[in-house]
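BUG-567 | component: ligand-complex export | severity: low

The export step for magnesium ion jobs runs without errors, but we want the raw record kept on the ticket for reference. Input record follows.
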Amino acid sequence: MKIFTETGLNNELLRAINRLGFEKPTPIQEKIIPNILNSDNDIIGLAQTGTGKTAGFGLPLIQKTDIGKRSVQSLILCPTRELCMQITSDLKDFAYYTKGLSAIAIYGGTNISPQIQALKKGAHIIIGTPGRTLDLIRRGILKINGISTLILDEADEMLNMGFKEDLDAILKTTPEGKQTLLFSATMPDDVRRIADNYMNSLVEITAGRKNSGAENILHHYYVVKASNRYPALKRIADINTKIYGIVFCRTRNETKDVADRLIQDGYNADALHGELSQSQRDHVMQRFRNRSLQLLIATDVAARGIDVSDLSHIINYNLPDDPEVYLHRSGRTGRAGKSGICISITHSREGRRIKELEHVTGKKFQYKIIPGGREICERRLFNLIDNVENVDVDESKIESFMPSIYKKLEWLGREDLIKHFVSVEFNRFLEYYRNAPDLNIVPEKDLFIKKGRGNKTTYTNIYINIGSKRGMNPSNLIALVNEAMRKRDISIGKIDVQRSFSFFEIDREYDQKLLSAFDGAIYEDQPVIVEIKSGNKNIEAGRKNGYSPHHKPTGNKSKGKKRKKHK
Ligand code: ADP
Ligand code: MG
């Protein structure tokens, strides 16, 4: 593993890197920076999103720029306005100590005159979307026949968005001897064609497995009825009190609808989609970046290339049709070594698609159960109490108000006072979640695949002291077992949920492991008791005999770690 000082970058750039807090080059940067600095080869950089490609090309590009020469030396093409602005601002950060470097962003959907003015003053690096760039070339304002470097960033996405002709037209006006750098997360045929037609003496640099999901992203999925997507999303947002993420929707209308409902329900959320004017989009993005918004509801195109760091979650309100889109979406979290969770809200017939995504990402997807109302309220409540405990109290600011407040609340004792404070914050939640239904449905994988193998497996009958009274149902039971066993493919046979206890069958191979997995477990503050049903008769017989196990509560066990469905 290299350090930045070994990449050949100059002191100004190293200082800027230091200022940004980058400690060491990412794998693609390690390979590509020396390559760009020391050669004029054309390069294809293939790496998943969030791997630091911008600095990978941006830093050496700045170093190779002849600041004294006031002419366009490099053109960077990228698919969206947001990405254009992002790259420009990244370049300015990298050039923080490089005196005199000028970089200009040109993109559509906004008045062209200021861009023309800026271009007339001259710049070293132009960052543009294909449409506007071509427009300015055709008007004779932008001259790229002298550039030494051409960069195609997110080439796959530019082609997906229909910029093929614009790209061809632009590429034709670039000079022969330039260096071309093409970056892409994937390598579909269209991208290959661009490379074949316009690039010479190619070097292909790949970091990480092609098309694979980043290492530090966890993939979770929930299974609900399609009509329950929205309440499921709400619960996911509610249980993750500090959530900061993007919710991806299929269409503009769905984006608007989900955002409207969230706003109405009191969340810090807003929509980003193509129908907004540019200034509205900027406004939304600014609020999201400074964290006034916790949830950005977006279509794929609108969110393309946005680099907001530290996103905690990506939520697929629907699974995308194309697994590559899933990769792009999930790449918005877990950036530069940080961890992130990519959540998919699915319905019962999408088990096969989860399998497909597991294949594409090379990752195991974890089935999660939508938390119940009680669990959510508990989590929120503790979060609130935590905040109350840890808030900074600035005596000097509140001092003058306190006497009259004390006086007004005089009649309340300490405990009542706490109850009142909690209720102010909490009545909305308690009301919403009173009688909240279970939204989970059993994923087909767990039900059918396992039952299908039924005759080969021998089962052991198991008793568990949790029944429907405490929210047990077949899907919860499967999830509970899966979680306790930390394994998802254990065969579960018949399930019989009674009011205060349940029976289920488990593959005989695993029965002893099951007992130890539940040893000391707690479910909603009570010890879980799991036993092999005596004589191992079938479930029907067990019920007829009025099987009713008697247990001595094992007091010391309740000290064991609390079993939580979600971490
Ligand atoms: P990509 O273009 O590959 O999707 P970006 O260039 O947008 O990724 O970088 C993703 C994030 O990683 C950005 O927030 C960037 O500031 C950060 N980053 C880039 N290089 C490093 C590094 N060497 N160390 C730490 N963070 C980095
Ligand atoms: Mg990028």
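Assignee comment: Attached the raw record above. Residues 136 and 443 are 53 Å apart (CA to CA).
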